[in-house]
Amino acid sequence: MSQQVVSWGKRFLFFSLALLIGLFLTQRILVAHSVEQPVKAIGAVAQESVETLSLEEIRNGDIYDRIRRLDEERTLLSLQAPEVALHLREVTGKGNPVAIIAIKKLYGVDSKGHLNAVSAAAAVRLPILTGAGLKYNAEKLRVDGTLFREAMLFIEALRNCDEVLSQQLSEVHCDQQVGLIAYFSQSKTLPVFIGAGNLQKKAKNLKLFFEQLSATHLMGQLRYLDARLADQIVVKKMKA
């Protein structure tokens, strides 16, 4: 009986690892097209069999941590859930917000996800967080989720890289498929696809891009910027 349990346990772990490999490799490869075609993400399929891994190799890796994070993500609530509204009744204090979030009304949110009352002056100067990728942790009573944490890291990376560019960040949209999408005041409604990961490098790339090209006629010809690759920014021009 114990051998059968171990066998099924290995099969579950192998299946979970295969699933995670697929998830984490999706959108890692981008193909740049001509100006008439958008940049598209291509999913990659793992070719090596996970059944060649031993249980010890899996234990020594981060597979358990990844599964734990995925399980935690599934327990988080939508910000529009009725339970969240009940928790927000207790939000009365003031903290040190780094962004603004709208849940029926505007709240300040700090880097740990704690919500607090915010003044009108603070609401004007801070970026707003939007998107279905934002979740609420009812157990810890705070905004949570992978994309929220990525958004906080991106805001911090911009602040460390360029204070002026940081102040021009007007919105960070948390999209469950694309990742982070940023909007800056100097580029109006131009979406900048950030994705996830390598956020310090991406912040530096944006700093150089805006320094060199924000004052040129090129900015008015763009549909979006794709900064999901850590070593370059891909521009998508509008059709002539």
Rg measurement, Å: 21 Å
The percentage of residues in β strands lies in 15-25%
End-to-end separation in angstroms reads: 69 Å
Number of strands: 14
- The shape, in one word, is globular
Structural class: alpha+beta
Question: What percent of residues adopt helix (DSSP H or I)?
Answer: 25-40%
Number of helices: 8
| Average predicted confidence as pLDDT | 76
Offer a concise description of the structure:
By secondary structure, this protein is an alpha+beta fold. The protein contains 8 helices and 14 strands. A hairpin with a 4-residue loop joins β8 (135-137) and β9 (142-144).
Structural features, described:
The chain is of the alpha+beta class. The chain has eight helices and 14 strands. The strands form three sheets. It has a nine-stranded mixed beta sheet with strand order 6-5-4-7-10-11-12-13-14. The model is unreliable at about 25-55 (pLDDT under 50).
Task: Please supply descriptive tags for the structure shown above.
9-stranded mixed sheet, globular, 240 residues, alpha+beta, 3-stranded antiparallel sheet
List the topology elements:
Blueprint: H1 2-25, E1 29-31, E2 40-42, H2 55-60, H3 63-75, E3 77-78, H4 82-88, E4 99-103, E5 105-109, E6 115-116, H5 120-125, E7 128-130, E8 135-137, E9 142-144, H6 146-161, H7 163-168, E10 169-175, E11 179-184, E12 192-195, H8 199-213, E13 222-226, E14 234-237
Helix pairs in contact: 6-8
